[in-house]
């Protein structure tokens, strides 16, 4: 692997997601088939460009200081005001009653693709930072899709317990997305609440203490719902809730893809091996990594969670399992369980033989019936 250069010019491709804003406005204004422009652009065009451009196996110096990353970071900092303004305009437009029912639904889906595929992705980057402004921007982005508890669940549960039965979003081998999605919706909120409650208890504070972030989560979400109702009326409120649903759907599709079938080895007595790059699917596809600000370098993100997106490293197949295509197409494939299993189950079995040849019986791993990690 060669070394990637950190420069203003190299930061520019990571701004590709901003082009989704004029595309969705064009779809809303012109209606008809123009409404599918954004989904086609984000899912199909990016995948085709990946095939043409190829993989990016360059790695930046992980010790690059934040001051050298300004143009990379700026796109994540400006995204909330850009998304908020876009969302308010679209809620108002949808509330005018000029769209056919199918146009209303397709526009809500396209908006959710923007707020989920880009907005939640940027929120994910921001919530991992220590900077107070960035963490607040992450909270605002998650509230705009009514999924604020994701921050608590992601930071306090997912990163600690990924690949174990304690983590709701580690998709099990042979678990179709249609089973995974309702399970995650049911378990993640309770999991996030339990984690925050435990943290407050360690500080000797009651669960209703003002420092419980669920107060903030609730207030921000109610604020967005009230804003949607004020701007777009009841139709605008329905549109807002629908786009939030599609955004969350895309988030959980991504979670499903990122860890499908990958587990950490149980060492006995509720102890599990440390998280390694091999416990997340890696994808080095250049264009979709531009679009998703290197989210597909997920193996390194779990190995070094505080590393900013331009500095995430990619790995070779002997270090981490590789996806055949980028996330946009893989998430679509996940919606078709037979196709997904045909493409991914052989890869999971190959991963098991490569990294854990000593494990002969995977039944407990497949069913998630191993002991919960100690301290969870």
From TrEMBL:
Sorted UniProt keywords: Cell inner membrane, Cell membrane, Iron, Membrane, Metal-binding, Monooxygenase, Oxidoreductase, Transmembrane, Transmembrane helix
GO terms for cellular component: plasma membrane
CDD domains named among the record's database cross-references: Alkane-hydroxylase (cd03512)
Broad class of the protein's primary localization: membrane
Record field: transmembrane: 12-32, 38-57, 69-93, 99-123, 224-251
Gene Ontology MF, one: monooxygenase activity
Domain Fatty acid desaturase residues, every copy: 101-330
Location of this chain's protein in the cell: Cell inner membrane
Membrane topology of the entry: Multi-pass membrane protein
GO biological process: lipid metabolic process
Protein family according to the UniProt entry: Belongs to the fatty acid desaturase type 1 family. AlkB subfamily.
Protein name: Alkane 1-monooxygenase
């Amino acid at each position: 692997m060669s070394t990637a250069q950190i420069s203003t010019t190299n930061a520019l491709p990571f701004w590709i997601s901003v082009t989704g804003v004029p595309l969705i406005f064009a779809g809303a204004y012109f209606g008809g088939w123009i409404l599918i422009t954004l989904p086609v652009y984000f899912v199909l065009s990016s995948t085709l460009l990946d095939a043409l451009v190829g993989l990016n196996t360059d790695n930046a110096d992980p010790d690059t200081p934040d001051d050298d990353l300004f143009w990379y970071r700026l796109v994540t900092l400006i995204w909330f005001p850009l998304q908020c303004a876009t969302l308010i305009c679209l809620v108002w437009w949808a509330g005018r009653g000029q769209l056919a029912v199918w146009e209303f639904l397709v526009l809500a889906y396209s908006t959710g693709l923007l707020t989920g595929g880009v907005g939640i992705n940027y929120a994910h980057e921001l919530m991992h930072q220590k900077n107070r402004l960035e963490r607040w921007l992450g909270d605002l982005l998650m509230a705009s899709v009514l999924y604020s508890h994701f921050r608590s669940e992601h930071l306090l549960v997912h990163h600690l317990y990924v690949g174990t039965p304690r983590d709701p979003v580690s998709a099990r081998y042979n678990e179709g997305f249609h089973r995974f999605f309702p399970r995650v919706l049911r378990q993640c909120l309770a999991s996030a609440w339990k984690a925050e409650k435990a943290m407050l208890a360690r500080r000797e504070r009651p669960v209703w203490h003002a420092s419980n972030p669920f107060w903030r989560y609730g207030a921000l979400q109610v604020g967005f719902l009230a804003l949607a109702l004020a701007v777009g009326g009841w139709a605008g409120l329905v549109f807002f809730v629908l786009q939030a649903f599609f955004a969350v759907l895309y988030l959980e599709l991504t979670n499903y893809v990122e860890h499908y079938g990958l587990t950490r080895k149980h060492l006995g007595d509720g102890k599990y091996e440390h998280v390694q790059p091999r416990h997340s699917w890696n994808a080095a596809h250049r264009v979709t990594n531009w679009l998703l600000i290197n989210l597909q370098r997920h193996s390194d993100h779990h190995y070094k969670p505080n590393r900013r997106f331009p500095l995430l490293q990619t790995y070779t197949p002997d270090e981490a399992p590789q996806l055949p295509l980028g996330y946009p197409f893989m998430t679509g494939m996940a919606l078709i369980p037979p196709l997904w299993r045909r493409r991914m189950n052989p890869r999971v079995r190959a991963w098991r033989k490569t990294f854990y040849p000593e494990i002969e019986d995977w039944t407990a791993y497949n069913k998630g019936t191993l002991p919960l990690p100690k301290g969870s």
